[in-house]
Amino acid sequence: MTWPVARDILPVDADSATLVGRAWTPAGPSVVVLRPEGVVDVTVHFPTMRALTEHADPVAALAAATGPVLGSLDDLVANTPPETRDRDLPWLLSPIDLHVVKACGVTFPISMLERVIEERARGDQDAAAGIRAEILATIGGSLDELRPGSAEAAALKAFLLERGWWSQYLEVGIGPDAEVFTKAPVLSTVGGSVDVGVHPASQWNNPEPEIVLVVSSTGRIVGASLGNDVNLRDIEGRSALLLGKAKDNNASASVGPFIRLFDAGYGIDDLRASVVGLTIDGEDGTHLEGRSELARISRDPEDLVAQVVGAHHQYPDGFALYLGTMFAPVDDRDVPGRGFTHHDGDLVRISEPRLGALVNRVRSTDEVEPWTFGIDALFRTLAARGLLHEGSGSVSGARPRVQRIASVIGMPAANREEYERLHAAVWPKVLERLTLSNIRNYSIHRHGEVLFAYMEYVGDDYEADMAAIAADPVTQEWWSVCEPLQRPFAERAEGEWWMELPEVFHLD
Question: Are the C-beta atoms of 264 and 230 separated by less than 8 Å?
Fold first, then answer.
C-alpha cells in the first residue's frame, strides 16, 4: 500500500484555489493556508477554523494574513501517516474543528433504495439481492426525476403504501423533510492519509464518498471539502434506532484534505456540477470504482442547509454538512450474493477534480488512533499560546496580559540595503520560533541610521520563552547574519543587544 503524495491530493486548479486546512505543530493544532511558498500558519489571525469560517469575508481576511511557513505540502503530507510520523514535525489534520458535524441521508434515489433493502433484510446480506429485485419490479423504473415533496412523490407514496412497501427511508427520501443527523462529535473527524474505522461487529459495510459543505452560523455556505461517512449497513439495517452505533465510532468520519473556500473562481454553481469519484483497493487485489454526480441529488445543497439551520435551530460555531452519496456497491466481494464489504487494509480514495482527493486506509475501530484531543484540550492549548483574546477570532472573551516591548539599535547607512533585503524574506523557522515563544505583532521601523522595534509578548514566562529563542540553532544563525549589520547603542543595559525603551504612554 502506498500513501499519496502532495500532487495526488490537490485540485486540478490548485494554483487558483483558496485552500485552507489544519495542521498539528509542536505548539498544537494550527490553521493553515496553501500558498506558493508552502503551508503557511495563520493561527495568530485565526486561532480556529471556526474563526475563519465565521468571518464576514474569509477570503479577503485570509489574503491579508501572514505567518510562518511550516514546510512544503510534500513534507506535511509525507509526515501524516501514523506509522511513519515524526511527532516533532507538522502533519495534516481534518480541516474542521469547532463545527458541528451533520450528515444527510438518502439524498440520492439509489442510496434510498439500498436503505430500504437494508431495512427489509434486517442486516441479512443473503436476503438483500432478492429484495432488491422485488423492489425495482414494484416501483417500475428509475426515481431519478422524482422531486421530494412533489405531487408525484405523494402519488408514489400512496402506491407503495397500498402494496405494503412503504418505509421510513422512503419517507425521508421522497417526502418533504430531509434526513439530517449528527454524524460525529466536535473535533472527532480525521483527515486524509490516516485510518478510518469500521466497527469489528459489522460484517456488511462500505465507504460513503460525499461532498461536505462548511456553513457559518448564519447559514452561509463558505466552502466545501470531501468526506467519508463510513457506513455499517448491517447494524443500521437491523434497526434505525442503532444509527448512533452504525455511524459514530472511532475515526468513522473523515474530512479533507482541505476546505476550498468559495471565491470569485469557485462557488455554489461549480459545486453543483461536482462529480465525486471513488476507488477502493484491497490487499487481496480487489479493485472497485464508483462515482456520484451531485447533479443527481434529489435535494439541492442550499435546500439541505436551510433544513438544518434557521429559526428553529442555531449553530453558533457553524457546521459541516455531509450531503449524502449515490454510491451503494452491490458487486460481490467474498460470497456470491452478499455484495461488497470492507476488509482490513482497504485503501479508499475519494476525489473530485476541484476539491482534490481524500485518501484513507480501513482499520478496525479498536486499532485506529484513539480520539484523545477534545474541546478542553484545544482551548488549553490556545490559552498556552496566548491566542484567546478579543480580536483574534476566538470564541473566548478572555484577554491575556500583553507585555509591550520597544527597543532601538543603530544601523550604518551602508548596511541598509542588505538589512532590508534580509528582512523582506525572514527565514520561516525564525518566524515559527518567535510565534512558538508567544511573540505577536512584531515590527521593525527605520529612521535614518536608527532601527526601532516593537513587539507584544502574550505568554506566561517571558524569560523562558526568550531563552528558547536564544537557544534555537536557526535563530542563532539568523543573528550571526544580521548582527554584523547593526550597531548597538553604548548606553544599553548589560546583556542587551537591542536597547529596550521605557513606556511613557499607552492607549488600549
Answer: no
**pLDDT, tens digit (0-9, with 9 covering 90-100), for 99-119:** 999 999 867 655 566 666 666
Highest mean pLDDT among 235-239, 291-295, 494-498: 494-498
Helix 109-121 and helix 125-139, axial crossing angle in degrees, nearest 10: 130
The closest of 302, 291, 269, 296 to 178, measured between CA atoms, is 302
How far is Cα 358 from Cα 186, in angstroms, rounded to an integer? 20
Given a contact cutoff of 8 angstroms between Cβ atoms, the answer to whether 257 and 223 are in contact is no
Amino acid at 132: R
The Cα–Cα gap between 189 and 250 comes to: 9
**End-to-end Cα spacing for the chain:** 56
Angle, helix 462-471 to helix 428-436, in steps of 10 degrees: 160
CA dihedral over 263, 264, 266, 268, signed as positive or negative: positive
- pLDDT at 228 > cutoff 90: yes
DSSP state of 343: -
pLDDT digit string (tens) for 174-201?
777 888 999 999 999 999 999 999 999 9
Q: Nearest CA to 290 among 330, 260, 322?
A: 330
Name the one residue in this structure whose C-alpha cell is 543595559.
493
pLDDT, residue 238, reads: 86
Q: Which of 94, 137, 105, 22 is nearest to 251 (CA)?
A: 94
pLDDT at residue 479 tops 70: yes
What grid cell was written down for 265? 473562481
From residue 296, give the alpha-carbon distance in Å to each of 142, 163, 274, 403: 12, 27, 10, 57
pLDDT (tens digit per residue) in 6-40:
999 999 999 999 999 999 999 999 999 999 999 99
Q: Could you give the CA distance from residue 179 to residue 273 in angstroms, rounded to a whole number?
A: 23
According to DSSP H, which parts of 36-167 are helical?
Answer: 49-53, 58-63, 73-78, 109-121, 125-139, 151-162
C-alpha closest to that of 190 among 253, 101, 232: 253
The CB density around residue 174, as the number of other CB atoms within 10 Å, is 23
Exposed / middle / buried, residue 294 (Cβ in 10 Å: 0-12, 13-18, 19+): buried
Asked if 346 and 280 touch (Cβ cutoff 8 Å), the reply is yes
pLDDT score for 296: 84
Residues 6+ apart with CB under 8 A from 126: 337, 338
Q: In whole angstroms, what is the distance from residue 123 CA to residue 128 CA?
A: 8
Query: How many CA atoms lie less than 13 Å away from 316 in the CB half-sphere?
Result: 3
**What residues form DSSP beta bridges with 281?**
287, 347
Q: What is the pTM of this model?
A: 0.73
Neighbours of 124 (CB within 10 A): 15
Complete DSSP assignment for 489-501: -TTSPTT-SSEEE
3-class SS of residue 165 = coil
